[in-house]
Amino acid sequence: MNGDYESKSNKGFLFQAKTDEAFVIKILGELLAQRLKFAPFKVTPDGIFLLKMDPKKQQLIEIALEKTNFSPYKCSKPINFSVNTTYFYKMLKCIKKKDGLRLFIHEDDPHNLGICIEQKGEGNKVNTFLKITMTHPEDIQKPEGYDPPIIIQSKQFQKMKNLHSISETMTITSKLNYIKFFCDGGELYSRELVIGEENDEDNAHIKNVYKQTFNTQHITGLAKCAGQSYNVQVFVHEDLGLKIKMKAGSLGEITVYIKSKELIQDEEEERIVQDGEISDLAKNIQLRDEDSEDDENKKQKVPVKKQTKKTK
């Protein structure tokens, strides 16, 4: 594989991005492997981007890595491609914290993503090529209308991993600068992570309290990503779901929108109602068509008059 890379290294690139923060890309690869089967990347002259819903439509993942954070960076025109996240992360698992990384697509090999891991301190380069599929960008609307976020220090947010094994469900309670993550393990134990004071001077006058439940793994699974950011911004909204935003090292930003169990249930009930209305409409149309057909048949049937014999 080294020979293949060297033979192509002097040829033109459709796309190339190099960074000393290979470990950040590894963490992003792990996040994608946990939540998506295929990751649709969009590389443009401005950077590397991703916006994709998970298969169950419960999470929206957004990644934005600006070109100015890579050196060198080259991309003359937008390229949309998808990778298998399991294999993508598998290619990144050997990365260590001080390693460098080069991602590239050659002009003469546009269906392979090149991954060159530069192992600093050892002077080695590990080169692999991953098959990619060219795709068309999806039209996905991001939720908008959130109030200002609650700021949580990265080290505090990373303590979220201690809640992972307590319960599959997490209850989040919040108002202004206060937020509580609570997992109930039943009669024997429970655990919570509290940020801020619930009844301080700023919160005392607030009567409306946000309280919704989530899949625990959707929240705790972001703890490792938080390790690459100085702080984590948490936005809450009853009708939009939870929004968690953080830095991806110095390369860009990660934003994950997560639906609560209450929001998922409301959407499911609405879908059932809509399906019922569509079904009723279809039945009404069918009955109307059948009535029209009956009327048409009646018109086509011309009654035959019986002739009576005249008596002499």
UniProtKB/TrEMBL annotation:
Residues 15-131 form the Proliferating cell nuclear antigen PCNA N-terminal domain. Residues 145-259 form the Proliferating cell nuclear antigen PCNA C-terminal domain. Keywords: DNA-binding. It holds the Pfam family PCNA_C. InterPro entries: DNA_clamp_sf (IPR046938), Pr_cel_nuc_antig (IPR000730), Pr_cel_nuc_antig_C (IPR022649), Pr_cel_nuc_antig_N (IPR022648). GO terms for molecular function: DNA binding; DNA polymerase processivity factor activity. Signal peptide: none annotated. Residues 283-312 are annotated as: Disordered. Residues 300-312 have a biased composition (Basic residues). GO terms for biological process: leading strand elongation; regulation of DNA replication. Belongs to the PCNA family. This is Proliferating cell nuclear antigen PCNA N-terminal domain-containing protein. The lineage of its organism: unclassified sequences, metagenomes, organismal metagenomes.
